[in-house]
GTP cyclohydrolase 1 (Maudiozyma exigua), 250 residues
Amino acid sequence: MPEHVNSANSHSDLAKSVVRSSTPLNQRPVSPYTLNPIVEEDGFSWPSFGTRKRAEDTPEEHQGRIDRISKAVKTILEEIGEDVEREGLLDTPQRYAKAMLYFTTGYQTNIMDDVIKNAVFEEDHNEMVIVRDIEIYSLCEHHLVPFFGKVHIGYIPNKKVIGLSKLARLAEMYARRLQVQERLSKQIAMALQDILKPMGVAVVIEATHMCMVSRGIQKTGSSTVTSSMLGCFRAHRTREEFLTLLNRGR
């Protein structure tokens, strides 16, 4: 093969490699699972930038957040062509600001002080515990629209059990953040694994995403199922037992 052809091919391959190296598939993801502990020393779990400050807000600082969000929402309403002075929208920016802060309370929730508290108990029990059909409501971080559904949590204790209501509170805490369903499944499972040190944890989430139902492909009736299996639940037999018990009586 002529030398100039080899040279051209090598330049072409180099150009392709440069293009490929900049694609998302070739970039190491920044993951909260690898960069930070599951539960930090002060009791917060994977806090985002600024969430500790938000948790410590005075009433005046909290009102300042509402005012700044309201101002931004008013701009959005103006930009979509609405009359922000009409009766129906006069208080909408303030309402939205308060609602958004409520929808994202999971950021400022202390997992140990506000969720788990003193509800971990010594118990000689090593059979599967399942709480299913825990309703959750969250916000998709890509479009800031809701997704909602049910969480099913199972674990096999290793001399420690947790109050059953705390499983629902754990799911609620992580759901009250900007989320993707895959991350939500994993965060619930990993937090429970870290707190109880059980033999295994299983989390399954079934949810409907409004970003898929009301925009884009607009496929009503569709649902998304994600799971996170840790410890002994990675074994086929244990996983099958969990899924069988989950679907019994439906």
User: Anything to note?
Assistant: The CA atoms of residues 244 and 250 lie 11 Å apart.
